[in-house]
């Protein structure tokens, strides 16, 4: 397990038009060892950018510390799962999972054994010799998660890993992910557009403002665990209460970011229609359909 500390983090880059763009501004955050932490915000707010900086894939001003040690680039103490599966089509499932261990020089017998154990953890025992094109979308994402777990990282970074899946598969994998988290004790940082997904999975949720991204508020999720064992927890009063709190925080940022342009008129017009900035259903549609500009 590892703690993650972010200190005075800012990220600028040059846009395609040649202008200076401030993506993240003076961001400070502490994530505890073994915590399941979600990053929630409108499209383009810098959620994925922040995750990539923690992963060492992008540079930024400020500090990222893993167990007190500065992040200077990619490292084996962090595993990353992207929305895209990024599996090698010419390798079997077990070979895909073992690929990183092969690059580390781990002996074949040991790396295949580790890969099989990780596949069992994600519920893919019996599919070791299949190829990616023989798997469903959910199974491909399970394989990607197993690959990230294979070299036993302390921190698992997940960038909207279930966004492309159908609703039923997404809910199943959310429950499976919580089981993996409980078994492994990993620190997980999870990026999502979905309020419901954040509430179901995380212990705490950071709501990020529209660009430039700052921490607007960190919300504790006071739900019992293990959540996947509680029947229809998403319909409970406690779930609905915290979901609505996050919706109120996020709706203002969705309007400010301009995400709703194209969803029934300008964001100003939507905001003027009622006392709330926008309807809850419309917000969720914008979250689901908005394109990340990061």
Largest sheet: 6 strands, mixed
Strand order of the largest sheet: 6-7-8-3-9-10
Shape, per Cα inertia axes: globular
Q: Helix content range of the residues, please?
A: 25-40%
- Low-confidence segments, given as residue ranges, are 261-294
Number of strands: 10
- Count the helices. How many? 9
Care to give the gist of this entry?
The protein is an alpha/beta fold and 294 residues long. Helix content is 37%, strand content 21%.
Describe the 3D structure.
- The structure is a single chain.
- With 294 residues, the chain is α/β, with parallel strands linked by helices.
- Helix content is 37%, strand content 21%.
- The strands form two sheets. It has a six-stranded mixed sheet, with helices on both faces. It has a four-stranded antiparallel sheet with strand order 2-1-4-5, with helices on one face.
- The longest helix has 21 residues.
- It is globular.
- The C terminus is likely disordered.
